Amino acid sequence: IWRELGERLKKLEQPEEAERAWTNSVEMMPYESEGHQAYAAVLESQDRWADAETPWKHVMRIRSKEPTGWLGLAEVLIRLEKWKEAREVVDRLLRSEWPSRFEKVRERALELDRRIRK
């Protein structure tokens, strides 16, 4: 709901209020990954890749045993051309054993790996 409110405020040309709405998703539940992930998605949709790095790191910290944060961070690091850091994250993704419900992780990590090698 915070994302939707932010989009509405942005359309009303109230960028500061829109940003506040988006950050509320994090502030309301700072120890839950969903708010950080939603905020990272907003930042990415605005091509604010450098700003999206921190929320993805929070997702990783909160849900370290799930690949979502690692995949999000790898994408951001590639966009920022932080090749060494991206390599470390992708290598971690490829080395780790993920629960079966994350069946596409290896495929996605290999795709990221190809992008790093370009």
What is the fold's blueprint, element by element?
Layout: H1 2-11, H2 15-28, H3 33-45, H4 49-62, H5 68-79, H6 83-95, H7 105-117
Helix pairs in contact: 1-2, 2-3, 3-4, 4-5, 5-6, 5-7, 6-7
Commentary on this structure:
The protein is mostly helical. It has helices spanning 2-11, 15-28, 33-45, 49-62, 68-79, 83-95, 105-117. The protein is globular. The mean pLDDT is 92.
Kindly summarize this structure in a few lines:
The chain is mainly α and 118 residues long. The protein has helices at 2-11, 15-28, 33-45, 49-62, 68-79, 83-95, 105-117.
Describe the structure using short key phrases:
118 residues; mainly alpha; 75% helix
> What structural class should be given to the helix and strand makeup?
mainly alpha
Rg (C-alpha, Å): 15 Å
Q: How much helix is in the residues?
A: over 70%
How many angstroms separate the termini?
38 Å
Total beta strand runs: 0
Report on the biggest sheet.
none
The coarse silhouette is globular
Low-confidence segments, given as residue ranges, are: none
H-E order:
HHHHHHH
With helices defined by DSSP (H or I, 4 residues minimum), what is the helix count?
A: 7
Query: Mean of residue pLDDT?
Result: 92
The proportion of residues in beta strands is: under 5%
